[in-house]
Specification:
Strand content: 5-15%
Strand order of the largest sheet: 1-2-3-4-5-6
Shape: globular
Order of helices and strands: HEHHHHEHEHHEHHHEHEH
Number of strands: 6
Structural class: alpha/beta
């Protein structure tokens, strides 16, 4: 409840700047321990604000630590354990959109659920979204708020059951950083300690976190595209991650049938150029 007005205002600011353009809003993804301050000064501040002992803050912080937080209690899993966190975010999205509609604007939010591996996770989250949607429509006396509901495909299992995921998801965004991590079994945070040896010894031709591995990760994307479209022919498909700024990766995504790219701001010009080149190359081949 305390976070809600801040989240709503930030979302409203973004939707207003991007008026009449789609804005993908990924639900909270960081592991739980990242929400807890690490310095003693800020931990003392939390203890004082909550009127509890510092020891209690430290104890709770320890309980939230995980052996491998990148595949731990984060993303949709956090929302299943604490559905009020999902509800707060979704209410913020719809409330921000409703206020902008009241001001004559045309917001186009797209709610994206991260780290999914099971269609039932999406069904669980969709119930929260539907309830929030109805509540906001009633509060603001609106007939509708145009939006999309989708998911990140960043776990191999999700790619392989994309036909089921597409029952609820209106769009897929392939999180290729995590999809690469989970397909190779490489930690993207620690890969620097041995990747040069792999390339020097020709075990790998390139760093798969820089250029998309088309053989295996690419196959998972192609499977997900095919199966997702079997269920939902008009499903929106794109890529988010640093591969979105790599020309070879963008060219592959174009061939695979993806239609949008999300990447770091400084990579956007490269991505636009690579997408244009891929489209021109395809046109030449069709002549």
């Amino acid at each position: 409840e305390e976070l809600f007005p801040f989240v709503k205002q930030e979302i409203k600011n973004t939707l207003e700047v991007m008026d009449n353009l789609p804005v993908t809003l990924r639900l909270l993804d960081p592991p739980l321990h990242e929400f807890v301050p690490q310095s003693e000064a800020t931990q003392m501040e939390i203890a004082k604000a909550l009127n509890i002992d510092l020891e209690e803050v430290l104890k709770r912080s320890q309980l939230l630590k995980e052996s491998n937080p990148m595949i731990g209690h984060r993303g949709v899993r956090l929302g299943i354990t604490f559905p009020e966190i999902t509800r707060m975010q979704v209410m913020a999205v719809f409330s921000a959109a409703a206020e902008l509609i009241g001001q004559g604007k045309t917001p186009r939010p797209e709610i994206m659920v991260p780290v999914t591996c099971n269609e039932k996770e999406l069904s669980f989250t969709r119930k929260i979204v539907d309830a929030c949607y109805r509540e906001v429509l009633e509060i603001h006396n609106l007939e509708q708020i145009p939006y999309l509901f989708g998911t990140m495909i960043e776990i191999p299992r999700a790619a392989l059951i994309a036909d089921k995921m597409a029952d609820a998801a209106q769009f897929f965004s392939f999180g290729t950083n995590d999809l690469t991590q989970m397909t190779f079994g490489f930690s993207r945070d620690d890969i620097g300690s041995f990747m040069n040896d792999y390339i020097d010894n020709a075990i790998l031709d390139f760093d798969p976190f820089e250029t998309l591995d088309q053989e295996a990760v690419g196959s998972l994307i192609e499977i997900a595209v095919e199966r997702g479209r079997q269920t939902r022919p008009d499903i929106k498909l794109g890529i988010c991650g640093e591969h979105g700024g790599d020309p070879a990766s963008v060219a592959f995504c174009h061939r695979a049938g993806l239609t949008y790219v999300s990447c770091s701001p400084y990579r956007v010009p490269i991505a636009r150029l690579a997408a244009a080149q891929a489209a021109i190359q395809e046109a030449r081949q069709l002549r």
